[in-house]
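Two quick folds needed for the group meeting slides. Do the first one here.
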Amino acid sequence: MIPMVDLKRQYDKLKVEIDEAIARVLDSTQFILGPQVEMFEKEVAAYHGVPHAIGVANGTDALLLALRALGIGRGDEVITTPFTFIATAEVISLLGARPVFADICPITFNIDPARIVERITKKTKAIIPVHLFGHPAEMERINEIAIGHRLPVIEDCAQAFGASIGSRKVGAFGAFGCFSFFPSKNLAGYGDGGMIITGDSDLAREVRILRNHGSEKRYHHHTVGYNSRLDEIQAAILRVKLKRIDEMNHARRLNAEGYRSQILREEVIVPAELAGYTHVFHQFTLKVKDRARFVKSLAEHQCASAIYYPIPLHRQEVYKAAGLLRGGLKVSEACAAEVLSVPMFPELTQQEIARVCRAINNA
């Protein structure tokens, strides 16, 4: 079976360096907020061209702490996409605010800036675009809207580490960029992990306090915070991989070209890439009618597939009370019915890509 992602291949390739990095942490006996986290934060900040990066426990906490640092709370509204993993909306709800869903662009699967404008009210306090599947959202247009309405932007970059618009990396456009290092991500740890980047020193200080029980000085607490700290072992592993992130993303892009050149079915729509945008292909996501027959053919050819995401957030049980009825976000619903992701990871071979393409072409 060709899997959606093969973590063992990457570990085998980097085993010596990763094992040595872990051993150094174990030998140091510094496991929380030690030198590995500090160095990783500096390296991530430099990579993105921003002054501040703060390691946190996971990508969900990255979004949560960013919202808290901006003062988002009960009665506020935050505009985001319904076509993403639930964490993006979940953190809004956890703070007592209300997620307001704006429909997506059918080409990129990302939030449509024109639909954002329609959702802005006096209660709107922030916008969270998601760089879904590794393709950047239209940040220039989103920022224009945000500036015009004096709204902060939090970029959900969980699937897009290294993606860019022109020479500028995603995460560096908004007040905050939030990353996940979940094991399947482009820059992946061996457990949970997350990161927040920002150009604002005051916001960075607030996030550092919030992640550590509301404390800047030991045993002195000026706010109710969280236990959300990136651990030393994960930071050490991620530092090994960060050195190769551009190389790994390049391999993903080559794999995407292999798919594009060999998928011959006219009714299969392959992922788009807007001019001037660099897609890093966290997923290679097709749009197909009669999805079941393609899933069946892939399975018969021993090729994995996955559907991200089968139910848009406004149709989830937890958000039925939001007042957005079925049919209200038509593009998101249409995409949810047609998307199909196929195997994508840097170590995927051209022979495997050819086999996946045969399964698609023969469906």
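Then this one, please, same format:
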Amino acid sequence: MSGEAATGLKPGSLAVWWLACRPATLWAAVAPVLVGVACASSAGGFSSGPAAAALCGAIFIQIGTNFANDLFDFRKGADTSERLGPVRAAQAGLLTVRQLALGTALAFGAATLCGVYLAVIAGWPVIVVGLASIAAGIGYTGGPRPLGYLGLGDVFVFAFFGVIAVTMTAYVQMLAVPRSAWIASLGVGALSTAILVVNNLRDRPTDEVAGKKTLAVRFGEGFARVEYFLLVAGAFLVPPALLSVEGRLAPLLAMLCAPLAVPQLGLMKSGVGRELNPALGGTARLLLIYCILLSLGLWLS
């Protein structure tokens, strides 16, 4: 069945491009910026211009990474008709490789424009981090030794969608990184990585065939299930850590979303294949609500 027949979308249409952006994943770019803005604000350093540019840059980097992932996974054979997750534009024939390559370039180009503005304000650290983020976004599935195919995707996500995203958002506003941002970034990184773990556990059979050696492929399903539990549990140690280290009580608001983790942990305990799709969406919602509550707590503290 063609992609058009399966989705009802016309190849190359705006709706297809929106599908390729993977809108559900964009919250993973927005959430750490919210926390970074809250950290800067709680330290008296909020600045609307740099905050908005950081948000736009993060979203465009996420979109560029999604396009590149779609493109390179298709070329490497990881996305096939056996895929268990949502439709991918290249695999479904909705976008050509050339179109996705152009889309990737435009998305990273837009992110670069945001970075130029931030570099004028905050200097060379923005240039270094921006270039590294784009290189990692492409290198996640592209190049001769892709990060995702070497089992380094978990480290990439934790670093770039957690620690770096939160701390650099704070930095571009106040030219310093408050201690709260370093601590809070660990929880954001943990839940962002947990989303990837669900994806990798679900796709383990097809990834193994394609030679994509994620940690789930390298060490097995049991490892991935334990990793997910530890990441979620670790995220909920962060609010008490902020209380212990900085005496901040309000960030404990993030603990209110802990019940949302229970169904996902249940699915990850024994789910396989398509059974894990709800856990993927559920973990993404958990990340967003966790970050909103954590941000609110930081604003109030």
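Slide caption for protein two: The CA atoms of residues 119 and 126 lie 5 Å apart.
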